[in-house]
Every structure is written in structure tokens, then in C-alpha cells.
Amino acid sequence: MHEISIYHIEVKGLMDEDAFNATSPLEVAEVQADPAATMFIICTDQSGLIGLVRHLHRQGLVLLSVHRER
Questions:
Q1: Residue-level pLDDT at 1
Q2: Which residues sit opposite 39 in a β-bridge?
Q3: pLDDT, tens digit, for every residue of 25-57?
Q4: What domains lie within the chain, and their CATH numbers?
Q5: Which listed residue, of 12, 19, 20, 70, carries a Cα 20 to 30 Å from 37's Cα?
């Protein structure tokens, strides 16, 4: 459960990486952005991922997908 993994997360619309990281519990790195969706990566364990998903929700961002690298 405390295994560190790399997660690819996609949210609907554009997301300002700097503004998000200023308030986020974890720092994200933007990979791809267009008007339809923003994809970013994060390196964390499962509890960190859950905290980030909660933060996304509080920011009003719509979660489209979460993928863990193997």
C-alpha cells in the first residue's frame, strides 16, 4: 500500500500547473495540455494519490482518467 508509483492523471480542460502546485499537497508535472484535457504525472504512494484526487475535486477539476505505470 505504501509503494511509490508513477501515476498519469488526466483532467478535463486546461489546468495552470504553477497555480495548481501552489495549493496542491503534492507537486505535479504537466505532460500534455489542450483545451479539452490536461495530462500530468505524479510520483507518490496510494495515500498521496487519494489526497491529490480530493484536492482535484476541491478545485472543481473533473477527473477523466488515472493510470499507474507498472
A1: 61
A2: 10, 32
A3: 888 888 888 889 999 999 999 999 999 999 999
A4: 5-68 (3.30.70)
A5: 70
Residue 56: partners with Cβ closer than 8 Å, 6 or more residues away: 9, 11, 63
Among 49, 58, 52, 11, smallest CA distance to 32 is for 11
Residue 15 has a CB neighbour count (10 Å cut-off) of 18
Other beta carbons within 10 angstroms of residue 52's beta carbon come to 21
What's the confidence (pLDDT) of residue 67?
96
- For the chain, give the mean pLDDT: 90
Cell representation of residue 33: 495540455
E strand or H helix at 63, and its extent? Answer: strand 63-68
